[in-house]
């Protein structure tokens, strides 16, 4: 960790209003919820990103939405890290994830991209995958629907109704990560995912 450097929470997604509530934009939605919680606004900054700045437990945190398409997310993320001197240990990439049911949120450091081209782009440009990923579960497509079509479809009505609570869980986990570290944040997410929080 570099105490004087800010954290960077980079949500992955596609720019433009058409994509706003699509499953592939779960990362944008999660960092947007964090910004709302702290009364912060996104402004264009750096290489191809809009950025909001918040403070969590006295620590400076940058929230970013790269404005290149999701498969090219690596260069905007790397540009922000260079500009602000952010080490990879203080980078969190928020992504949609087909491997978990909708409503699940998981934190993990490192590992392969699991077919997510945005995560692959970040790892390829940085030359390392040793960053934390907040994986926002979107579930698998129904039989007969391609993955590509599924991730670019908007959330269903039932999912939209549940979305605020899921985004709050992601925001809670991210704040705990910055405050208390990865293990504590993972524990908190596991408790929050159990029925009645037990």
UniProtKB/TrEMBL annotation:
- MF terms per GO, please? peptidyl-tRNA hydrolase activity; tRNA binding
* Broad class of enzyme this protein falls into: hydrolase
Q: Which UniProt keywords apply?
A: Cytoplasm, Hydrolase, RNA-binding, tRNA-binding
Q: Which residues form the active site?
A: 24 (proton acceptor)
Q: Give the reaction(s) catalysed.
A: an N-acyl-L-alpha-aminoacyl-tRNA + H2O = an N-acyl-L-amino acid + a tRNA + H(+)
Its signal peptide is none
Q: Where is this site: Discriminates between blocked and unblocked aminoacyl-tRNA?
A: 14
One GO cellular component, as annotated: cytoplasm
The family database entries (PROSITE patterns) matched by this protein are listed as: PEPT_TRNA_HYDROL_2
Residues binding tRNA, per UniProt = 19, 69, 71, 117
Task: Please tell me where this protein is predominantly located.
Answer: cytoplasm
Q: What are the residue positions of the site described as Stabilizes the basic form of H active site to accept a proton?
A: 96
Pfam families associated with the record: Pept_tRNA_hydro
Its Enzyme Commission number(s) read: 3.1.1.29
Alphabetical list of InterPro entries matching this protein: Pept_tRNA_hydro, Pept_tRNA_hydro_CS, Pept_tRNA_hydro_sf
Per UniProt, subcellular location reads as: Cytoplasm
Q: Name one GO biological process term.
A: protein quality control for misfolded or incompletely synthesized proteins
Give the family this protein belongs to, as stated in its UniProt record: Belongs to the PTH family.
Q: How does it assemble?
A: Monomer.
Q: What does this protein do?
A: Hydrolyzes ribosome-free peptidyl-tRNAs (with 1 or more amino acids incorporated), which drop off the ribosome during protein synthesis, or as a result of ribosome stalling.
What NCBIfam families does the entry give?
Answer: pth (TIGR00447)
Q: What is this protein called?
A: Peptidyl-tRNA hydrolase
């Amino acid at each position: 960790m570099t105490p004087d450097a800010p954290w960077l929470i980079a949500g992955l997604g596609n720019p433009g209003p058409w994509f706003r509530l699509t499953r592939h934009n779960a990362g944008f939605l999660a960092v947007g919820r964090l910004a709302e919680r702290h009364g912060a606004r996104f402004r264009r900054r750096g290489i191809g990103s809009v950025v909001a700045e918040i403070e969590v437990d006295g620590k400076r945190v940058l929230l970013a939405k790269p404005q290149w398409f999701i498969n090219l997310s690596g260069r905007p993320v790397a540009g922000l890290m260079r500009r602000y001197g952010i080490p990879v240990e203080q980078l969190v990439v928020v992504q949609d994830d087909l491997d978990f049911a909708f409503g699940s949120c998981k934190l993990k450091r490192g590992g392969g991209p699991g077919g997510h081209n945005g995560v692959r782009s970040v790892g390829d440009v940085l030359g390392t995958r040793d960053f934390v990923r907040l994986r926002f579960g979107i579930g698998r497509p129904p039989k007969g629907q391609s993955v590509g079509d599924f991730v670019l479809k908007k959330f269903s009505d039932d999912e939209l109704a549940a979305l605020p609570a899921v985004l709050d869980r992601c925001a809670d986990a991210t704040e705990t990560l910055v405050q208390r570290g990865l293990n504590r944040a993972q524990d908190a997410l596991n408790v929050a995912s159990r029925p009645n929080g037990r």
